[in-house]
Write a structure and sequence with these properties.
This protein is 61% helix and 0% strand.
């Protein structure tokens, strides 16, 4: 059974992480680990919202690759443009507790933030389509 209320809640939480990203564009003010954590959180919640739209109970994990695999198993296709966002999985746990080398030069924060917004928009469309089919 689809859980569209849970999907809406997940997207709301993801949008808050996205809002945080928009204010974290300056690497001098926000360390890469903090920025990457909010990218990971927004993507995780978006993928879980998508799973809710499909009627799939999402696993309580932070692994973005695994969540993408669950989506594939459910018959959904993650558009290729969003695949690079899966690389932020390590920011959920590993990079929260380890000292990182300086990665700030490797991340185009504006581009990543834009990609997160596009993923959220994609999942919002999936949710609207699921809501339309329910009525």
């Amino acid at each position: 059974m689809k859980d569209l209320d849970q999907a809406r809640n997940m997207l709301l939480i993801a949008s808050k992480d996205y809002q945080a990203l928009t204010g974290m564009q300056d690497p001098a003010a926000f360390p890469t680990e903090v920025f990457g954590f909010h990218v990971q959180q927004a993507v995780e919640k978006a993928l879980k919202a998508w799973l809710c739209c499909l009627g799939v109970v999402f696993p309580k994990i932070h692994d973005l690759d695994e969540l993408a695999a669950v989506l594939r198993d459910a018959g959904a296709v993650l558009p290729e443009q969003f695949v690079p966002l899966l690389e932020y999985a390590d920011f959920a746990v590993a990079f929260r507790y380890d000292v990182l080398p300086d990665l700030s030069a490797d991340i185009d924060r504006s581009s990543v933030t834009h990609q997160v917004r596009r993923l959220l928009g994609h999942v919002e469309t999936v949710l609207r389509d699921a809501e339309a089919r329910e009525h």
